[in-house]
Design brief:
CATH superfamily of the domain at 51-264: Glycosidases
CATH architecture of the domain at 51-264: Alpha-Beta Barrel
Helix content: 25-40%
Number of helices: 21
Largest sheet: 8 strands, parallel
Shape: globular
Strand content: 5-15%
C-alpha cells in the first residue's frame, strides 16, 4: 500500500509517500475506514515558506484615505502583496485607544478595550454619505488636506472623524440599529460590546477614562450599567453603531484578502490599560498595585515601564482563562495569524512597584526570591543597606518581595550601582554567583511550568498561526516551550539570540520562525546603517563579505543583498517592514531614512504618526520595485 496526499478540492495527487510499501492482511469493505495505529509516512515535500510585509494600518496612505490609514486601504496593500508574490500582511494592534482625545492616544498598545476596534480606521464613505451637501463637501476637502500631510495628525483626524460619525449616526443610526445585520452583530458581541459602549459614554460625559473618579459608577455592576444605558441610550448606541461598521469593514477586507491568496496577521498586546473597560469590568483579573514592563535590553538600558497592571493569573485560571480565550476568538474573526507581543510575559512578567523611581527596581513575577539563609549560602553577607526604599533610590542590591516579606530579588543590573562598587572583591564574587544563578538558572523549570499552564489552552482556542515576540532577556526554557507548542519565534539578524555573536546567521534560523530585518521598535534598515559606524563596518565586512570601507549610506544594492539573505532563510516566513522592501529602489524610497521610524521604545511619550510617503496606488504602479521583489521571492523558493 502506498499513501498519497490529495488536494481536497481538485482531487489531484500532491505527493506520493517515500520509502517502503505498507503491507496488511485485513480485508476492509467499501463502507469501512482503514485505521492503522502508529503510521508515520514520509513525503518528500519541501516545507512551505512564504514572504510578507509589515506595516501599521495607520501608516497606509491611499488617494481616498482621510489623513490616516484605514481598513479599506488594506485592499490596495493586498493587491500589492499578491502582485509581488507575498502571502501575508502583518499589522500592529488596531484596538480603540481613545482615552484623552489627544495625540498621546496614538500609542497602539494602550487600548481602552481588548475587543473594540479604533474608530480612526473607518472609511467614512462606506458608513454613509451626509445628505447635507455643504457639510459633505467640507469633510471631503478636509480629508484631502489631512491626507496630504507627511505624517498623521492624530488629533485633527480623529476629531474630524468623530464629528462626521456623529452626524451620520443622527442621519442613519435608527435604520442601521433596526437592521437584521446589526442585531446579529449585537447578539454575537454583546458581552464585551455593551460594557465598552457604556464605558465610552461615561468617559465622554466625565471627561476622563479614569473610572476611579466616576463617583457611583467607579465600580462596575451590571445593574448600574443597565440603568445608565437607559438614561443615556443615544450616547451608548452611537458606540454600537461605530463598532458595527468597523467590524463590517474589516471582515470585508479579510474576505478580499482571502480571495487574493493573502492572509492578515494581527497583534495581541501583552498589557491592558489600567483605565480600560477591561479593568473596570474585571478588576479581579489584574494587579492594579503594580506596573508591567521589561528589564534592560537593547531597546532601553534603564528597562521599560509600560504602566499596565500585571495579570492575576491565579484568578484567570479559575475559569480556564475565559477572558483570554474570548480575546483570541474575537481576533480569529479577522486574522489567520497573530503575534503575541512580549511572549515572555506568559513565562514571567517584569513587575514594577507603582512608587518605584524607575523600571530597574522591578522584579519578575512569578519568581522564587531568596531567603536570608539562601543568600548566606552563596557566601554573601547581607546587610540592611543593601535594600533601600524603592520610592527614593535605585542604589540597592536587592528588592524585597511585595508578598513574601523577608524574601529578596537581586536588583537587575546591580553591578552599575555604587552599592555594588563599595563591596569587597570576595563579596562581589559572591554576589555575582547568586545574581547569575537567579537570573539564568534558578527559574528555568519553574517558568516553563508557568508557561505550560497558560499557553496551550490559549493557543488551542483558535486555528490561527501563533507567533511570539521573544526578544530581550530570554530564559533558557523559552525556545523549547515555543517549539513544542509550534509557536513561531522572531529572528532578527542585528539582535541575535546568541549573546556570543554580534549578528545572527539568517541561514541557521529554525523553520518555525519569522525572519525579519527589524520591528516597529527599531530603526528601519537604512537608518540603522547610519546609527553606529563601527557596527556597520563589521556588518559590511563580516556578514556581506565585502572588502574595504563600508559606504556611509545604505545603498540600494546593499539593501538588495540583505533582503536576499533574509528571503533565503529556512524560516517559514520572511516578513519585512515596507520601508525595507522599498529601500531596494533608489528612486522610490524616502529621501531621509530617519523619517521612517515608527516607534522609539525608550521614549514613553513617542508620537506614533509615521505614514508612507507615496500612495498605495503609486506603489502598485512601481513596476521596477515590484518586479524586483517578485523575482527575489521566486528565486528564494518562497
Amino acid at each position: 500500500m502506498w499513501l498519497v496526499i490529495v488536494d481536497a478540492e481538485t482531487e489531484d495527487v500532491v505527493a506520493w509517500q517515500s520509502g517502503e510499501n505498507y503491507y496488511f492482511n485485513e480485508a476492509v469493505s467499501e463502507d469501512e475506514a482503514l485505521v492503522i495505529e502508529g503510521l508515520r509516512p514520509k513525503f518528500d515535500i519541501a516545507p512551505w515558506r512564504g514572504a510578507g510585509v509589515a506595516i501599521p494600518v495607520f501608516s497606509l496612505r491611499s488617494e481616498s484615505s482621510f489623513g490616516v490609514g484605514e481598513f479599506n486601504d488594506i485592499r490596495l496593500m493586498v493587491d500589492w502583496a499578491a502582485a509581488t508574490g507575498q502571502s501575508i500582511i502583518q499589522i500592529l494592534p488596531i484596538n480603540d485607544t481613545t482615552m484623552t482625545g489627544t495625540w498621546q492616544d496614538s500609542y497602539p498598545y494602550n487600548a481602552n478595550s481588548t475587543f473594540a476596534l479604533h474608530p480612526q480606521f473607518l472609511h467614512l464613505p462606506l458608513v454613509g454619505k451626509l445628505k447635507d451637501k455643504a457639510q459633505m463637501q467640507r469633510f471631503e476637502e478636509l480629508g484631502k488636506e489631512l491626507n496630504s500631510l507627511p505624517n498623521v495628525d492624530y488629533e485633527r483626524v480623529n476629531n474630524a472623524k468623530a464629528e462626521y460619525l456623529h452626524l451620520i449616526f443622527d442621519q442613519e443610526g435608527k435604520k442601521t440599529l433596526a437592521s437584521k445585520e446589526f442585531k446579529a452583530f449585537m447578539e454575537a458581541n454583546e458581552e464585551w460590546l455593551r460594557p465598552y459602549a457604556i464605558f465610552c459614554a461615561l468617559r465622554d460625559e466625565k471627561g476622563t477614562p479614569d473610572f476611579s473618579t466616576w463617583g457611583t459608577m467607579a465600580k462596575y455592576t451590571k445593574a448600574k450599567a443597565t440603568k445608565y444605558e437607559k438614561e443615556h441610550a443615544e450616547a451608548v448606541a452611537y458606540n454600537y453603531f461605530v463598532q458595527y461598521h468597523l467590524s463590517k469593514q474589516l471582515r470585508e477586507v479579510r474576505d478580499y484578502a482571502h480571495a487574493h491568496g493573502v492572509v492578515l496577521k494581527g497583534d495581541i498586546p501583552i498589557g491592558i490599560s489600567r483605565t480600560s473597560v477591561d479593568a473596570w469590568v474585571y478588576p479581579e483579573l489584574f494587579n492594579m498595585d503594580s506596573s508591567a514592563g521589561a528589564p534592560p535590553d537593547d531597546f532601553s538600558v534603564m528597562g521599560q515601564n509600560w504602566g499596565f497592571p500585571t495579570y492575576n493569573w491565579a484568578k484567570m485560571a479559575e475559569d480556564g482563562y475565559a477572558w483570554w480565550k474570548a480575546r483570541f476568538v474575537k481576533m480569529a474573526e479577522y486574522f489567520d495569524a497573530y503575534r503575541i507581543d512580549h511572549i515572555l510575559g506568559f513565562f514571567r512578567i517584569w513587575e514594577i512597584p507603582l512608587d518605584a523611581v524607575n523600571a530597574l527596581l522591578g522584579r519578575f513575577n512569578p519568581a522564587l526570591p531568596y531567603s536570608y539563609e539562601e543568600i548566606a549560602s552563596y557566601g554573601f553577607k547581607f546587610e540592611g543597606w543593601h535594600v533601600g526604599n524603592v520610592a527614593e533610590t535605585d542604589n540597592v542590591l536587592f528588592v524585597e518581595d511585595k508578598i513574601q516579606k523577608g524574601k529578596f530579588h537581586p536588583r537587575i543590573s546591580a553591578y552599575n550601582t555604587d552599592c555594588y562598587r563599595w563591596l569587597s572583591d570576595d563579596q562581589k564574587e559572591a554576589y555575582n554567583r547568586l545574581y547569575n544563578d537567579f537570573f539564568y538558572r534558578r527559574h528555568n523549570d519553574f517558568w516553563k511550568w508557568e508557561a505550560m499552564k497558560k499557553l496551550p489552552p490559549l493557543t488551542e482556542a483558535t486555528r490561527m498561526l501563533v507567533c511570539g515576540e521573544d526578544l530581550g532577556m530570554i530564559p533558557d526554557c523559552v525556545p523549547s516551550v515555543m517549539s513544542g507548542e509550534q509557536i513561531l519565534s522572531l529572528e532578527i539578524q542585528r539582535m541575535p539570540k546568541d549573546p556570543k555573536v554580534e549578528f545572527g546567521s539568517t541561514y541557521d534560523y529554525p523553520y518555525l520562525s519569522i525572519c525579519t530585518t527589524g520591528t516597529h521598535d527599531m530603526n528601519p534598515l537604512r537608518a540603522w546603517w547610519e546609527e553606529d559606524r563601527g557596527v556597520t563596518q563589521r556588518f559590511y565586512n563580516q556578514v556581506l563579505g565585502a572588502w574595504g570601507e563600508a559606504p556611509y549610506f545604505c545603498e540600494p544594492w546593499i539593501s538588495e543583498q540583505v533582503i536576499a539573505m533574509h528571503l533565503k532563510s529556512p524560516a517559514m516566513l520572511t516578513v519585512l517592514p515596507l520601508q525595507d522592501w522599498m529601500a531596494m529602489d533608489g528612486e522610490l524610497r524616502r529621501e531621509n531614512p530617519h523619517d521612517e521610524r515608527i516607534n522609539v521604545p525608550a521614549n514613553s511619550r513617542h508620537y506614533w504618526r509615521y505614514r508612507m510617503h507615496i500612495t498605495l496606488e503609486e506603489l502598485l504602479k512601481s513596476e521596477n520595485l515590484n518586479k524586483m521583489i517578485r523575482q527575489k521571492i521566486a528565486e528564494s523558493g518562497r
